[in-house]
Every structure is written in structure tokens, then in C-alpha cells.
UniProtKB/TrEMBL annotation:
PANTHER family: ABC TRANSPORTER ATP-BINDING PROTEIN, MALTODEXTRIN IMPORT ATP-BINDING PROTEIN MSMX. Residues 4-241 form the ABC transporter domain. Keywords: ATP-binding, Cell membrane, Membrane, Nucleotide-binding, Transport. This is Carbohydrate ABC transporter ATP-binding protein, CUT1 family. It comes from the Bacteria. GO terms for molecular function: ABC-type ferric iron transporter activity; ATP binding; ATP hydrolysis activity. InterPro entries: AAA+_ATPase, ABC_transporter-like_ATP-bd, ABC_transpr_FbpC, ABC_transpr_MalK/UgpC-like, Mo/tungstate-bd_C_term_dom, NA-bd_OB-fold, OB_MalK-like, P-loop_NTPase. Signal peptide: none annotated. Belongs to the ABC transporter superfamily. GO terms for cellular component: ATP-binding cassette (ABC) transporter complex, substrate-binding subunit-containing.
Amino acid sequence: MAKITLDNLAHSYLPNPKSEGDYALKELNHDWADGEAYALLGSSGCGKSTLLNIISGLLFPSQGRILFNGQDVTHAPTAERNIAQVFQFPVVYDTMTVRQNLAFPLRNRGNDAAYVAARVQKIAEMIGMEAVLDRAARGLTADAKQKISLGRGMVREDVNALLFDEPLTVIDPHMKWELRTQLKSLHHEFGHTMIYVTHDQTEALTFADKVVVMYDGRVVQIGTPQDLFERPEHTFVGYFIGSPGMNLLPAQVEGTTAQISGHQIDLPQGYAALSGKVELGVRPEFVRLSTTEGLPVRIVRVEDVGRHKIIRAEHDGHAINIIAPEGEGVSPDATRVTFDARGINIYADDWRVAPMGDLSERAA
């Protein structure tokens, strides 16, 4: 297990990068704690796999260092980093049995035969393959082969880190939840440092202790699922986390009020003068329809998704999504919306602005 430090780390696939736009991975300075489970979350092309490959040693960065427990491993080969990596598509030895595949990393390191047998049996039970341990891998389905890859990554107890690069892409949807649960159980039992790359917010939020959200080659927020939901530090986090994502409305903010198209919204705390692109962000869960007060809207449609309704509305050309509890009717007279003050965030040029006098945030 290892604490992983990213020190002034950046990477460009161009031989002579000249500007920030030339970097696929923009400068990072972060410490990832020993024994925690992290998810790297973001849309395709944001730099997730590039960062994972630098951590694993498959790619050397253009600048900066990566350290495991304070030791510089920036240019160390993968074999010397003592990590296990599971890729998006299954990598198995087709001529070997499932048992032999799972045992290979342990036998390759000269572990005792009795320990190998016990460990293989435990992992096989965890991934649900104990009944096919003596079958050749060649005849198995793609999702079964990926389960072997996951098991082979998890079979060693002494690794510095377990790295997963979109490992559930080829897994049957009904198996995904079970395997995520098993990975989380393994983490709780053995305390490995785990990094899990995904573009799926459900996978990230259900797997990780902390989610590392990436956008355009940079980390825009690291936090718990609750942090990301309640206080998105960047508008991309608000948009990407949640279904639907955060509503964002252009606003003029002064003190404890926001003006949206000439309509006043009271804010729970005051803000200093803001410049640039200023927006009010509020999640659909904190928006309520009203017949008498609030921001005027036009309801476009209502989507009943079973456990709640998603009401699609618009104000002055800007979409506003509202989540209404199951069974709550939608009155034709409800042509306004109000915002729960607890759910309001203010952004300037896409970054969240801390309200004045919030000492906890200033300290953070």
C-alpha cells in the first residue's frame, strides 16, 4: 500500500509543447492517501487514462514527479512499482485454466503452494468463479474473462496500489453492481490503495471513498460523493454529477441577493463583488414549483421516472430542471419556481465562490 504524490505533474503527447493547450494532462499537485479508494471520473478525453498510465509506469510524464510513500518512481519501470492494473478489455492467458490464471501472479513471485491455493480459492469465490476453476479460459465469455482479470489484479495482498481502467465495460449490466460491491468489500478487508477510472458517475460514487473529477486535463475537485453533490467546486462537477445535473443561470450577485433577468433571489449568505461570467447554480432537488412566488418559468414537459418526476422548464431561454416527489401533482397554475437556500451555489468563470465570512471554507 502506498501514499501517492503527484508533484508538479503534467504531460503532453507533443514533442515540444508551447502552451497549456498542448498538454493532455495539465499541472497537478495532489497527495492521495495510503489505503483509500479513489475514482477518477470524467468524460472521454479528459486525461483519466493518461494519469493512470503515468501512475502505473506505462507512460513517463513530460514534467514533474510521482512518488510512492515519498520515493521518486517517475522513471521506474512498471515492474518496480509493485502495482496491479486491470484494463478495459480482458487480458487473460487462454491456454491456462481459470485457476492457473489467478495463481500466475503469486507463483511468479515464488509464493508457497498452500498459500497460493488458499488465496486463489478466496478470490474465485469473491468473483463467483469457483465452479469453473479448472476450465480453460479460452472458451469463456468476455465478461467471464474480465472477471478473471479482476481476480488476478486482486489476488496479491502486497501491492502498493490496485489500478482499474474502466474494468466493467464488458461486464454484463447485472454483474456490475455485484462486482463493484465485491471490490469495495476487498478494499475494506485489505486496505489497498485503489484507483478506479470511469466515465460512469454511478460506478464512481458507489465505489470510491473520494472521487477525483477531471475536466479538460485537470483535476477540478476531489471529494466525497456528498461533497460533489452539495458543493460542486466547478460548474462541470455540477453538470456531470447528478441526473439531471445542476441548473446554471446567469446572474448578477451583490451582497445577499442575486438578480436573474431582473428577478430577485435571496441568498443565504453575502458575497463580495464578482466579475466575469457569474452564475447561480442549484440542483433540481432544491427547486420547487410555486403558484405565487419565485422566478417565472414555462413548463416544457413532465417525465415520470417512477420514483419521482423530472419537470423540464425554461426561463428566458435557459433550461431549469425540477425533481418532484412521486405522487406530487403538477398544477397548471404552477408557473414559478423557488430555490431552497441550502442548495444555492454561486460561480464566477466556472469556479465556485465562497460566501463572505465562511471561515470553514477559507481555512480549507
